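Exercise 7. Given the encoded structure of a 187-residue chain, write a plausible sequence.
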């Protein structure tokens, strides 16, 4: 099946509630320290007085052909079959940073123990039919979660509507078979 999160950059206000929710949700899992598995970036375009600011909330994209999974020498990184979520077994990770070198999104984080940590889409919440903590916490409803096919259909409709109304469009990302998380274009 496969699950994904997409971000509507037109809704994100950069409040970072997603980061706080992620850290709160995963505090017990990391145990030693809090590392933000999600980041919010500011993207500015244009020139004064026509400046456009968007916020990009980014975590692991759970790539279908994840380069981190392929390069890990100890096979500490795996893909959960039903959800398509890329998972890390900290017991097998040797902290070689190979995953960080090949990740096109700069996602892997390393704790004080030198082991890789990353977003797991709150897999325990998903197993309980709950949405990830970052999605639940987003006050602007900029983050959406669901099966890849449903999100793809929803996103394509929204993109078409925005492109019909917009004079210009910033394509930040698109859900493809290669990455499961996406950002909607900004109108």
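Solution.
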């Amino acid at each position: 099946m496969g699950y994904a999160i997409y971000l509507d950059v037109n809704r994100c206000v950069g409040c970072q509630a997603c980061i706080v929710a992620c850290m709160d949700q995963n505090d017990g899992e990391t145990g030693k320290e809090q590392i933000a598995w999600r980041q919010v970036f500011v993207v500015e375009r244009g020139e004064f007085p026509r400046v456009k600011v968007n916020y990009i909330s980014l975590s692991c994209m759970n790539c279908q052909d994840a380069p981190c999974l392929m390069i890990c020498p100890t096979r500490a990184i795996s893909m959960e079959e039903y959800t398509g979520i890329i998972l890390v077994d900290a017991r097998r990770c040797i902290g070689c940073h190979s995953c960080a070198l090949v990740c096109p999104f700069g996602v892997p984080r390393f704790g004080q123990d030198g082991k890789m940590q990353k977003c797991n889409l709150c897999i325990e919440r998903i197993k309980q039919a709950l949405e990830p903590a970052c999605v639940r916490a987003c006050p602007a409803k900029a983050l959406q979660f669901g099966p890849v096919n449903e999100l793809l259909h929803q996103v394509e409709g929204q993109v078409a509507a925005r492109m019909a109304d917009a004079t210009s469009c910033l394509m930040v990302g698109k859900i493809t078979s290669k990455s499961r998380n996406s950002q909607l274009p900004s109108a």
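Remark. The chain has a mean pLDDT of 85. Students should compare their own answers with the one above.
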